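As agreed, record passed on underneath.
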Amino acid sequence: MGWQNVLELGGILIVFILVLAATYYASKWIGKTGAIQMQSSNIKVIETFRIAQNKYIQIIQLGSKYYSIAVTKDNITFLAPLDEEQLDLTAKEKEAAILPFRDVLNRMHKKQKKEK
């Protein structure tokens, strides 16, 4: 009677671990495929500013040209073409310089080891 309970608990733990592993690898796969679909060398969203709920103004880059558009739930409206000189792209460059989370975590881990 006691061994049967232990075996059932072991089986449940194995199933739980398998489900965790499956969700980990599935989310990793979905993340990679989503990132691949979102990458484009000719179309980029430079900046988004929220005006109201479901209403945004975006600066986009199509090739080497910049445009401003208004985005709502149902519509996208062209506002104006923009020159690169009109834009402050330094914030975007700083954002690109942000380290991946794994690198930040590794740095913190090394720092904690040095303190001990």
